[in-house]
Design a protein that fits this description.
The protein has two helices and eight strands. It is α+β, with helices and mostly antiparallel strands. The protein has one domain: Immunoglobulins (Immunoglobulin-like, Sandwich). Strands 3, 4, 5, 7 and 8 form a five-stranded antiparallel β-sheet that branches. It has a three-stranded antiparallel β-sheet with strand order 1-2-6. A hairpin with a 2-residue loop joins strand 3 and strand 4. The chain is elongated.
């Protein structure tokens, strides 16, 4: 009887591990683009902005992300990192707008502002990870998006 129970338990563990592996393989990474940057406030030490991301979910099912980490790099300088701990739903085969609050210091953006003044544009990159909730556990996948900022609004 003990061997039979042990066999069932091992089969259950193997099945669960297999399902999680299949879920990871069947998952296509979201495509992230920076839609807008909105300056929220400026103080004596730095400021805050809202980074508006357009996230396309190429999967044929919705994705519930419970954590989104991010790193914002402007030109070659990292100006902010952080994570959002809230449930965000990405619609199946659709676009979702996610607003990421970002705090920055003047020291972090000083080089970027000087380069913007010289060139009139800045290259940026946003990268991070989505942690999704699935029936077989959490799956964490990377995302990234890049572009060029030609003017401030």
């Amino acid at each position: 009887m003990r061997r039979w129970m042990l066999g069932i338990a091992m089969a259950a563990v193997a099945t669960t591990a297999g399902c999680k592996t299949l879920a990871r393989q069947a998952f296509a990474n979201p495509v992230v683009e920076v839609k807008d940057v909105r300056v929220k406030g400026v103080g004596t030490q730095g400021g805050s902005l809202d980074l508006v991301l357009d996230v396309y979910n190429p999967n044929e099912y919705r994705i519930d992300a419970r954590r989104i980490s991010y790193s914002v790099v402007v030109d070659s300088s990292e100006i902010a990192t952080g994570e959002i701990e809230r449930l965000v739903t990405l619609t199946d085969k659709g676009h979702s707008e996610i607003v990421v609050p970002v705090n920055f210091t003047y020291a972090a953006v000083q080089k970027a502002v000087m380069k913007f003044a010289l060139r009139g544009s800045l290259d940026y990159r946003v990268a991070g990870q989505f942690t999704m909730v699935t029936p077989v556990g959490s799956i964490t996948r990377p995302y990234s998006g890049a572009g060029r900022l030609d003017s401030f609004r």
